[in-house]
Amino acid sequence: MGDMMDWMELLHHYKLISILIAAVIARVIVFIINKTVHNFFLKTHFIEERKEQTIESMIRSLTKYTVTISFIFFAISQYVSNFGRILAGAGVVGVIVGFGAQSLIKDILSGIFLIYEKQLHKGDFITINNTFNGTVVDIGLRFLKIREWSGKVLTISNGEVKQIHNFNIDQMRVIERVVVSYRENPERVFEILEIACEKMNEVHKPCLKLDHSNCAIEPFKVYGMTTINSGYRGIEYTVTGLVDDVYYWDAAKGARRIIAQTLFDYEIKLAEDTMLLREVENALLRERH
Q: pTM, whole model, 2 decimals?
């Protein structure tokens, strides 16, 4: 027992050693908590995987900030007499404001609301402030990280997030528009697009959003003629289909390919053909005059 007291007294005299040991302990605590939470979610499946990853990311961030702030306070207390009384007298809020951390509070509160209101989850594809697009890779108390299509990781403060477009909230509607030459018979165009929709419903059946009876809520269909003379070039037709958000991008790419191939097979002229013909006709008229 005496040896233990001597050891503690030695640590008290050598404050730097105490701080180093505290840093190691803090690191171990963070590692243990993160590992425990990760293993817990690996063995349980009572919530969706994306939500598990989001909660895990938030707990990891909360643990890191809590342990770091505690370590900083401990380190300061080693060199400032009665630091505990000073901290209690000033109040935690007063200390935070004194350090000029208003933006920190804003970021943390914004991060909490992002999670609480279920605006996004880890793995979601989102658009932030109508400017940045990418997949959410990390949600922290202060920062949100998204990986853009190019592979770059964008880090943005939670407080700077004003608007979020989330492409992974339960369902997405594939909306494909095609502008056809006004010389084409609308009835025939409708028939050809219906053929394309039948192919899409057959090929992308696993992507369609289903109801409780496993029936497609909104299979691919011709929504209708959405513009009579789109850009003075032709008639615009729209095809829609409701799909599971996980398969949205694959379904959208596949839908465009099937529509394009079907229009080509049935020799339906698109609006671009009309533009080119007009340019050629105008050029011939200028040459004659």
A: 0.61
